[in-house]
Amino acid sequence: MNIFEIISNKEISKLKEIKNISEKETKEKIKIIKFSFQKKVPKEIIEILISKGIPINLKDEKRRNLLHIAIKNKTEIEVIEYLIEKGIDINFKYINAKTVLHFACENNSIQVIEYLISKGLDINTKTMYSRIGLHFASKENSKEVVKYLIERGSDINSKTFYGQTVLHFACQKNSIQVIKYLIEKGIDINAKTNQNETVLHYACQSNSIEVIKYLIEKGIDINAKTNQNETVLHYACQKNSIEVIKYLIEKGVDINAKTNQNETALHFACKSTPSIEVIEYLISKGINIKAKTNQNETVLHFACQSKASLEFIKYLISKGIDINAKTNSNQTALHFACYKNSIEIIDYLIEKGADIKEKTNQNETVLHFACRNIPSIEVIDYLIYEGIDVNAKSIWNQTALHYACENNPSLEIIEYLISKGADINAKTIYTHTPLHLLCQNQSVFEIIKLLISKGADINAKTDRDQTALHYLHRNNNPSLEVIEYFISKGADINAKANQNETVLHLACQRNPSVETIQYLIKKGADINATSGMNETVLHFACRYNPSLEIIKYLISQGIDIHSQTNYGETPLHYACISSSIEIIKFLVEEGADINAKTNRGHTALHTAYQFNSSREVIEYLISKGADINEKTNDNANILHLVSKNNPSLETIKYLVEKGIDINAKISYGYTVLHLICQQKTTRDIIEYLISKGIDINAKTNQNETALHIACQSNSSLEIIKCLVEEGVDINAKTYQNQTALHLLFLTYKPFDMIKYLIEKGIDINAKTSHNETVLHLSFQNNPTLETIEYLIEKGADVHSKGNHNDSVLHYACRRKISPDIIKYLVEKGVDINSKTNQKISILHYASDINAKTIQNETVLHYVCLSNSSISIIKLLISKGIDINAKTNQNETVLHFACRSNSSFEIIEYLISKGIDINVKTNQNETALSISIKNSNEKIIQILLQNEVDIYDLQENEIKKEFIDSFIQIYSLNHDFNNLLNSEDNFSDLEIKSIDGFKFKVHKLILLTRFDNNNLILQKFIDNCYHKTKEEIKFIINFIYTGFPDFEKIIEILNQQMNKNLKENANQYYWGVREFEEEKRILKEIEENENKIKEFFKEIGIEIENKKRRKGIIKDLSKLYKENETKDFIIISEEKEIKVHKLILFTRSELFKGMFLSVSDTSNQVHDYSRKSNESIQQLIYFLYHDKFEENEFNSKIIEEFEELKDFYQLNKNSKFFI
C-alpha cells in the first residue's frame, strides 16, 4: 500500500511507520501534502507528515505556502491552528499578493476568518489587484461573512485596481441579500469601474430581474454607458432574457444606443443564443434591424457566428436583411455559417440567394471557412458539389486542405478532400505543406500515415527550413512509434532549420522518454550539433521540461557541459531558468562553473533570481559559493533583477538579510525602489525597504523619484499614499519639469489619486517644460465639470498659458468638452479673446465671435474639423457666429464637417440653420463630393434629401455610394411598402422628381425596373461612356420615369461612341415611332380573351391562381372590361407618351434587352427598332410561352432575339415570371 492510500484511508499507525518522506523530491512532498489537505485529513496526520520531513515553509509550484493550500481546500480549523502554532508565516503572500485571509473570505470560512483576524491579520490588506477580503466575500453570496467583515472595519467603498466596488462583485453573483445589505450600509450605487461599468451593467450580465428591479428602484442611472458606449441593454441582450429586456426598455433605456463599434442592442442579442422573441420585441420598439457596425457587420453576420437556429436565420431574412452583405473583410453570412458548419443554415442561405462563390479580402472561400473550425463532411461535400474549387487559395496560398490539417484534423475529412483532388503538396507563401500543419497536432498518426501514403513530401521545408519532423516536435512530445515511422520513410534526421536546430534539439525541448533520445542518436542524430545561437542539445534539455535521466545520458555520451551560447550562457544558466534543483545539483557536481558569466555579466545566481527560482535553488547556489553582491554589466545586483518580477516580501527580506546593497543603482539611475514601484507591488514591501534605509528620494537619470514612477505605472493609490506618508518629495520634478501630478493626468489615472496628491499639498500650478499646468493637461482626459471645478477651487490658475500662448480654453476646445465646462471657464475669467502664436482665438462668449485666423478660419471651422460635440456647435451658432464664413480656400464649416465625417446630426443641424450646401472650394470640392470621396453614405443621403446640386460632380466622383444613396432617396417615395403589396400589383405610385415635379408611375414597371435597376445602370454607366453632366441627367430621367429617352441616347452616343456603333444606335430613334403600331397588336390580343386564357392553360396556369403570378392574371382578367382598358401615361423628359397597361410589363423586359445591347460593342447591337409587326407579335408570344411559335418567319428571327432570350431565361424566376 502506498502513502496516498494510507492517507486516504486515514491509517495513522501505518503512516507512522513510513521513514523516507524527508528523502523525497520537493515535487513529491508537495503532492503528498496537497493530497492530504484535499482529503481533509485530521490534524494528527498533518502532524505526522510535518514530523517526518514535510517542511513547514514548503511552497507549491504556484508559490503558495501550506496555510494557503489548507484554507483553499477548506481544511478543519484545528489544522489551521496547528500550522500557525508551528510557526508558518501567516503574512506570506501568494504570487498575486493574495493572503490566507483572502482565501478564507473566498471560501466563506467565517470561523477561519475570525481566527486569522484574531492573529493580527489586516482586514483591509490588498492583493496585487487591490482586492480586499470583502471583495471576495461579496462575490461568494455570503451575507454573514460580508456583515462580519464590515462590522469589524472592512472598507465598504474599497475599489480594486480595475475600479470594481464590493457591490459590483455582489451584482455579478446576483446575491440580492448581500446587495440590499451593502446599499443599506451606504455603498455608492452609481460607482463605476475603470471601464465605466455600473453595477447595473454587472447585474444585466448576470440576468437577475430581481436585482435589476431593485437597483433601478434605488435610483441607479439606467442610461449609463461604458467606455465602449455600451448600455445596460447591450449587456442584457447578450443574455437574451425577454423579461429583463422588456423591463429595461419600459424604464426608458435608449433602445437605439450604439457602441463605439456602432453595435446596437440587436447586434448583441444575435451574439450568443439569439431568440426570435427578443428580436421581434426589439424591432417592435423601433430598433433598426438593418443597422451595421463599423466593420459593416449586420445582425445576420452575428447570428451566423452564434448558436442561432435555422428558424432564427429565416426570421432575419424575412425581415429584409441583405443575405449577401459584406463586412469590411468581405465576409458574408455564408462564410460564418460555413465556419459554424450548420448544413441546414448553409443550405437555406444558398437557397435564398447567398453567393457561394464570394471570397473574403483574404481570398478565402466558404470551403476555407468550413475547414477552419470543426469540419463537417456533410458541409464540405455539399460545398464541393456546388462547385467550390477544392484547391482555391487564400492570399497566403492556403488551400482548404491546409485549413483541415491545421484545425481539428479529421481522417474522414482529409481523406475526402484528397479524393476530390486536393493538392497534397500545396505550399503556402511560407512554404508550409499540409503535412507540416498536420504535424503540429496531437493524435493524428493515422492521418500522417495517410498523407505520406498519398505522396506527401516528407522532407519538404518551410521558409524557415523546418521539415515535418521538426514540426512534429514543435507543440508535441511525439511517441517513439511516430518518430520511427518518419525515419523509416526517409525523414532527414539531421535536417537543420534556419536557426540550425536539429530534430534532436527539439526532442530535448519536449521532455521525451530517454529511449527516444537514445533512438535518435543511434540513428545518427548529431549530439554535438549547435543551433544558430550556439545552443547544444544539452542547453535545450536543461531549459525546457528538463529530465535528469536525459541530461545524465547526454553527458555520458560526451556532450560538453561547459559549452556557451552566443550570449555566453552555459547549461547551468539554462537549468536555473527552469529552476530544477535536482538538475542544478547534478551539473554542479559534474563540474559546471557556478560563477560563469554571460555576455551581460549574469551568473547562475542572477539567472535564478531573474526567473523566480525557488528558495531551495538560491540557497544551494549560495552554499556552493555564488556571490550575492556580484553585479551585471549594467550595474544591477540580484535585488534589482528580482524587483522587476513582482517579488515577494520574503524574497526581498532574504537578500537584505544576506547583506545586499539596498541603495545601489543600475545604469539608468534606478534603485530597487524605482523598480518595485513599476510593478503592482504591495505596501508592506515599500515599508520594509524604507525601514531598511533605502533612499526614498533617490532620482533616476531622468530625475524621477519613486513617486514619479508609481504615478505613471500600474501602482495603486495605496502605494502612492505609502510613499507620501514615508516622506517622498511630493513636488520633485523630472527633467521635463513634470511633477507626479502632471504624470497622473498624462497617464489617465483615477481621480482619487489626483485628489489625494492635491490634498497633500502638491503644487497645483507647477509648469512643465512646455509651460503646461495640470489644468491644461486635464483636458486630455475628457474631464467632468466636477473635476475642473475641483482643480480651480484648489487654486489652479485659469489664466496660465502654454508655450504657444495656448490658454486652458484652447486646450478645452481641442476635445469634445461639455459646453458647461466652457461656460464655467469663462465665468472664472478665462480670456476668450486671447490668441495663440498662430492667431487662433477662442471666442465662445465674446462679442467678436467671428474673429478669424490667418487662414480665415473661425472657431466654428475648427470645431467642425475636430468632430466636436454638437452642443458646442449649437452654442456657437446661438451666439451669432457666421455659419457661412469661408476660409482662404473658400471652405465653409460644412466642408470641414463632411471632411471629418462628423455625425449626421451635425450635418443636419448645419443645413437646418441655412448653410449653403452647394458652395465650391478653390479646388472645386463641394460638401457632396467630399462625402462621396469619404464613402459616407449617410451624409450623402442627407445632402440629397436637401436638394444638393449633383450636376457639378466630376467623372471620378460618381461612386457606388452616390448611386446607391440616390436610388434610395429618389427612386421610391413613402409608398415603398405598398410596392411590395402583392394584393395590388396594378395601382399607380407617385414619384417626386429632382425638380420637385410629382407624377404617377405604374407599379408594374417600378417593380420590374427595381429588381434590375443596378444591373441596367451599371451596364450603361460602366460600358457605354464616361459620365458627363448631360449623361447624369439622362440616368436620372430613367430612374424617375422608368422610360429611356431615345433622343438622349442618340445625343450621348453621337458624342461619345465610335462611328460604327453610332450608325446602329441611330436606329433606336425609330423605336419610339412604332409604339402606336405595337399598341394595335396588343389591342388585337385584348379582343381575343379565350386565346389568352388558352395560352396560360398550355403552361399549367389557371386564371384563378392567386399565387406569385397574380399581377399578370389580375390585369388580364380585368383587361376585357371597358373601364380597365385605359392607356397609361409615361412621362419622358420632353413629352407624354400613352402606353397600354400590358405593354408596361412587356416593354419593361424589352428595355432590359435593349440596354444590354446598347452597352455591347457595335457589331452586337440588335436592330430592334426595325422589327416588323409580325416579329413583335412573335416576341410577345415568346414572353408568355417561353418559346417561339413554329413557322417559317420565326426561323429568321430566332437568332435575332437570342440575346434577349438568354436574358429572359436568366431572369425568368423574377416575381413576374414564376
From TrEMBL:
One of its GO terms (biological process) is positive regulation of transcription by RNA polymerase II. ANK repeats lie at residues 96-128, 129-161, 162-194, 195-227, 228-260, 261-294, 295-328, 329-361, 362-395, 396-429, 430-463, 464-498, 499-532, 533-566, 567-599, 600-633, 668-701, 702-735, 736-769, 770-803, 804-837, 855-888, 889-922. Keywords: ANK repeat, Repeat. GO terms for cellular component: nucleus. Gene3D superfamilies: Ankyrin repeat-containing domain (1.25.40.20), Potassium Channel Kv1.1, Chain A (3.30.710.10). InterPro entries: Ankyrin-SOCS_Box (IPR050663), Ankyrin_rpt (IPR002110), Ankyrin_rpt-contain_sf (IPR036770), BTB/POZ_dom (IPR000210), SKP1/BTB/POZ_sf (IPR011333). This is Ankyrin repeat ph and sec7 domain containing protein secg-related. The lineage of its organism: Eukaryota, Metamonada, Anaeramoebidae, Anaeramoeba.
